[in-house]
Amino acid sequence: MKHLQLIKLIYNNRHIIDAAFKGEEIQELPPELVDDAAIFQKVAKRYELSDSYVQFANAMLKRVDANYTFGDYNEEIKLLVRHKSDYLESGDKNILQRIKDLARTLYKKIEQRDILINARINDIVNDNELSIDLIIKDAMDVDERISELIDAHHENIKILGSELRGLDESLDEILVDIGLDMLPFTENIHGYNKRLSDFILRTEKRKEQNKKLSAISNKIMNERDDEIKSLLLSNHQLYLHTIKEVKSGNVKHIPSQVELKKSSFVDLLYKSLKLEKTARNATVYSPYTTSEQVEVKAIRLTIIQDDIEKNRPSDVYEYILEHPEITKFKEDNLDIIYGFKAYLTIVQNNREEIELIDKKFNEKNIKVAKWI
Amino acid sequence: MDIAKAFDVLSQGKIISSNSSKYNELANMLLTESFFDEVSEVLNRIGYRLVGESGYFYMAKKNKLNSSEQQSFINKNRDLIVAISFLRQLYPRLDRGSMVSYTGTVANYLNTKRDDSSIRDKLVYFSWIKDKDDEKSMLEQLFKHLEDKNIIEKVQESNTDKYKILDAINYYLSIVDSIEAGEQ
Question: What is the C-alpha separation between B99 and B152, in angstroms, rounded?
Answer without folding.
Answer: 9
